[in-house]
Specification:
By secondary structure, this protein is an alpha/beta fold. The protein is 33% helix and 22% strand. A hairpin with a 2-residue loop joins strand 4 and strand 5.
Length: 264
């Protein structure tokens, strides 16, 4: 399968910290593949995602997007490559005072001049596409509602649509359901899975909820103390593997998994 993202020998050590947040990470993500990244707090999951799209500059290693290297790239090339990397944040990162449609249109800013973006001079074709995607995702009645008026689940869906407006090759989702109730979390995870399959978008999603990773992803990457300790099919994620990832016995892990789903 075509590799959309390749990470080679990635390391990140934050200033003032003697311990790497990410160290020696190698991974690849194929077109249309959905990967769940799990592990305890501080394992390096968020740093990994932010290094992929260069929101965080790695200390060492290389990252390629569709065969082009983003690490060490010029500002102009970095901006160009970021167009193809959609990002969905835990806290939505929407502008509360703006309408749903205005927030979604921000996904086109990477394709526009600074002046056109500042003045909101979006192409009519892009506006029509935004409306179409919002209608497809059940948000058609909220086009002109301010983002601050929406529920948490609705805001997260707006964030996903905004990312889709970039026409991404890869979608990076950083704890997208961490603050949602179970019903909203299901809607958001199903949306991410379905749009990535339909559009053949590679997807990497960080999750605290191992049960969600089991249900929605094709492959699991388990991280502990900045390193990958498991990388394999979701179907092979056993109880003993989870214990290795979290460095705790299953009896101590309150992770919402039915024990019958796992084998030792």
């Amino acid at each position: 399968m075509e590799q959309v993202v390749e990470v080679c020998g990635l390391q990140k050590t934050y200033r003032g910290s003697g311990k790497p947040a990410v160290r020696g990470v190698n991974m690849a993500v194929a077109r249309g593949e959905m990967i769940g990244v799990i592990g305890p707090s501080g394992a390096g999951k968020s740093t990994l995602l932010r290094c992929i799209n260069h929101l965080v500059v790695p200390t060492a290693g290389r990252v390629f997007i569709e065969g082009e290297e983003i690490t060490g790239a010029s500002p102009a090339k970095t901006r160009k490559l970021r167009r193809r990397v959609g990002m969905v944040f835990q806290r939505h990162n929407l502008v509360a005072r703006l309408t749903v449609l205005q927030n979604v249109m921000h996904g086109r800013l990477g394709y526009m001049s600074t002046l056109d973006g500042a003045l909101g001079r979006y192409a009519e074709e892009d506006k029509r596409r935004a409306v179409n995607i919002l209608e497809q995702t059940g948000l058609g009645d909220f086009l002109y509602h301010r983002a601050g008026e929406l529920s948490g689940g609705q805001r997260q869906r707006v964030g996903i649509v905004r990312a889709l407006m970039q026409e991404p090759a890869v979608l990076l989702c950083d704890e997208p359901i961490a603050s949602l109730d179970p019903a909203s979390a299901q809607v958001v995870m199903e949306l991410i899975r379905d749009v990535c399959r339909r559009r053949a978008i590679a997807c990497v999603v960080n999750l605290h909820q191992v049960d969600a990773a089991l249900k929605y992803t094709d492959r699991i990457i388990g991280m502990f103390e900045g390193e990958i300790v498991y990388d394999g099919p979701t179907a092979e994620l056993t109880g003993s593997v989870i214990e290795k990832i979290y460095n705790k016995p299953m009896a101590e892990l309150m992770i919402g998994i039915e024990r019958t789903e796992l084998t030792a």
